[in-house]
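call fold(seq) -> tokens
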Amino acid sequence: MDNKKILYIDLDGVTVDYQPSENKTKEGFFLEMSPIENALTSIRKLASHYNVYFLSTAPWSNPNAWKEKRLWIEKHFGDDFKKRLILSHNKHLNKGDYLIDDRPHANGADQFEGELIHFGSEQFKDWQAVLNYLL
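ret:
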């Protein structure tokens, strides 16, 4: 592996927010989600400086979500990232330098050993703010 730092990105911070009342168990739900503005181009820029991986969680009540998240990556990034998806309910078990996550207190994100970047916070309110910090 090269000497680039490892950057994990939570997939939910890349897609348009959905309402909690929406049915996340519906087949096709995760595959149909739209990317957040500037997310795709920002991730491609970051990938030229970091080893980028998607680190995401999927609801146990929707086994299709696991497959749909992988297909979402392929749909929006092609073959470049489809083998860079890690699905886990224990994000703190992954070793890396940075984790960009919109839910810093869920699934072990707050126990991640590297630096946690809270996407959607005042400091990192959008992808431009993340780029400004990391590049």
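The domain at 5-134 is CATH 3.40.50.1000 (Rossmann fold).
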